[in-house]
Specification:
This protein is an alpha+beta fold. It contains 6 helices and 9 strands.
């Protein structure tokens, strides 16, 4: 599958000499902090680069392999293809490692093997059925129901932001409630 290929490619890069991947894997193995630059699209689609110091906890395969890590901002996921200039930091204390692992388990909402999610979208959101590997689509009453597997709420939140008002419904209800809570928290932070 495409996900397996990307995960294997990440491991091969680490073994073949991608220095950033090797340092990340080394930090995972020895429980050390890492400092790295994180690259992502910013305003006006210009590159935004953020300096990050985190304890790496795990690497997971998703549409793009991600690093699950813990920093002063809490549990986060970072796409591996957006991480650069990795530097090994000091070894994490035992209590820091325990806190990092606990926070990632609690906050990242990763589902081993994924959870099946159905999004009802308008015509403007139909593109996700064609773009996401393994997604299926059914047309009903002028709307499209797209069913896909997702391994994390972070992925779904990003997808919903991309779709915007084209999303009319998210199922199962438990997933919709979790994501609504996440977006409500963002709105409160923005108002503060």
């Amino acid at each position: 599958s495409e996900l397996r290929r990307r995960a294997e490619q990440t491991v091969e890069q680490a073994q073949a000499g991608d220095e950033d991947a090797r340092r990340t894997v080394a930090a995972l193995a020895c429980g050390a902090w890492i400092d790295f630059s994180y690259h992502r699209p910013g305003p006006g689609l210009r590159e935004s680069v953020t300096a990050v110091r985190a304890i790496p906890v795990d690497v997971r395969s998703a549409v793009n392999p991600v690093l699950l890590a813990w920093s002063a901002d809490g549990a986060r996921t970072y796409r591996l293809d957006r991480i650069g200039a990795v530097r090994l930091g000091p070894g994490a204390r035992r209590d820091e490692l325990a806190a990092a692992r606990s926070a990632v388990r609690r906050d990242s909402a990763w589902q081993p093997g994924g959870v099946t999610v159905t999004l009802t979208v308008t015509r403007a959101g139909r593109w996700i059925a064609e773009m996401l590997p393994g997604a299926t689509a059914v047309q009903r009453d002028g709307l499209t129901e797209v069913t896909l597997r997702s391994e994390s709420d972070e992925f779904l939140a990003t997808l919903l932001l991309q779709l915007g008002p084209a999303v009319l419904d998210v199922r199962p209800a438990e997933v919709a409630r979790r994501l609504a809570g996440r977006f409500a928290a963002l709105a409160e932070d923005a108002d503060a």
